[in-house]
From TrEMBL:
Domain called Dihydrodipicolinate reductase N-terminal: residue spans: 7-128
UniProt pathway: Amino-acid biosynthesis; L-lysine biosynthesis via DAP pathway; (S)-tetrahydrodipicolinate from L-aspartate: step 4/4
InterPro entries the record matches: DapB_C (IPR022663), DapB_N (IPR000846), DapB_N_CS (IPR022664), DHDPR_bac (IPR023940), NAD(P)-bd_dom_sf (IPR036291)
Organism lineage: Bacteria, Pseudomonadati, Pseudomonadota, Alphaproteobacteria, Rhodobacterales
Gene that specifies this protein: dapB
PROSITE patterns in the cross-refs: DAPB
Function: Catalyzes the conversion of 4-hydroxy-tetrahydrodipicolinate (HTPA) to tetrahydrodipicolinate.
Span of domain Dihydrodipicolinate reductase C-terminal: 131-267
Species name: Cypionkella sinensis
Broad enzyme group: oxidoreductase
Stated name of the protein: 4-hydroxy-tetrahydrodipicolinate reductase
Similarity remark: Belongs to the DapB family.
Active site residues according to the UniProt entry: 158, 162
Length: 269
């Protein structure tokens, strides 16, 4: 009998980490084989199920990623950029599929992911949900259909603990809008207006970030012209949508060649 793909979760004690542990344990097509936390973390050496306040799951939290990755077919990683690039090199060494949900990645992090992707499959997206990935496609289409008389603004809202802005999703949507318009986001991006900013520059793509309470994630793409507006909106009310997407990606990645992929590839949209 062939074994189900074994998955290791990095940042297992985090908001997404714990949801992923629950999601994999309940999944009939995958096994939880490893949980990583950083050295010194209170959960190291303990059973992940007990740490989360439930029944034992038979998986001990470790601070040794390579040992865990060596027995894994996939690694699901929702941590922080500096950790993610280290995990990418180790996952590539173990030839495990690396699913990256971590946001706040800068060009230097992407270059390291590109290097690791020579040896293993990396699937990275600022948002793993089906809804947001569809919205991204729609944003590109709408932006392509409208000219620069339509100002594009992306407004996002997240919980008070989020550390990066604009969100990974907002940047994905901005990239899609720029691609639809045939421009480079780096030259059009306008983020964090404050003070005497002057009038809006034609063609800019604006970003605004709200942080508060326990908001899971809300994104509006606003197309504003004289006399009319279009708003494309996605509201996340439960983190299980990201878990579903990440698990789908981990399983899809098992049959792919080494390289960089995103959720559009996984979803075929
Ligand atoms: N792409 C998507 O669909 C989604 C992406 N995200 C992104 O996922 C990331 C995590 O979000 P969230 O779960 O809310 O954040 P949390 O802060 O709750 O969890 C992050 C976890 O990663 C751990 N971590 C950080 N650095 C390391 C390291 N070097 N080694 C081991 N573990 C480490 C943290 O440990 P410690 O507490 O010790 O620092 C923590 O357990 C963010 O970038 C967020 O934007 C979130 C939801 C969906
Ligand atoms: O940090 C979060 O919580 C989320 N992060 C992702 C992002 O930066 O867009 C995805 C989702 O919106 C939740």
């Amino acid at each position: 009998m062939t074994q189900l793909p074994g998955i290791t979760i990095t940042g297992a004690s985090g908001r997404m980490g714990q949801m992923l542990v629950k999601g994999i344990t309940a999944h009939t097509g995958a096994r939880l084989v490893g949980c990583i936390e950083r050295p010194g973390h209170a959960w190291i050496g303990k059973d992940i199920g007990l740490c989360m306040g439930g029944a034992a799951l038979g998986v001990t939290v470790t601070d040794d990623p390579l040992e865990a990755f060596a027995v894994s077919q996939a690694v699901i990683d929702f941590t922080a950029p500096a950790a993610t690039v280290e995990f990418a090199a180790l996952a590539a060494q173990a030839r495990a599929v690396h699913v990256v949900g971590t946001t706040g990645l800068e060009p230097q992090h992407h270059r390291k992911l590109d290097l690791a992707a020579h040896h293993a499959v990396i699937i990275q997206a600022g948002n793993m949900s089906l809804g947001v990935n569809l919205l991204t496609r729609l944003t590109q289409k709408v932006a392509a259909a409208l000219d620069a008389d339509w100002d594009i603004e992306i407004i996002e809202a997240h919980h008070r603990m989020k550390v990066d802005a604009p969100s990974g999703t907002a940047l994905m949507l901005g990239e899609a809008a720029a691609a639809g318009r045939g421009i480079d986001l780096a030259t059009a991006k306008q983020s964090g207006r404050d003070g005497i900013t002057g009038a809006r520059k034609r063609g800019d793509i604006g970003f605004s970030a709200i942080r508060g309470g326990d908001i899971v994630g809300e994104h509006d793409v606003l197309f504003a012209a004289d006399g009319e507006r279009i708003v494309l909106r996605h509201l996340a009310t439960d983190r299980s949508i990201f878990v579903r997407g990440a698990l789908k990606a981990a399983l899809w990645g098992q049959s792919q060649k080494p390289g960089r992929y995103d959720m559009m590839d996984v979803l075929g949209i």
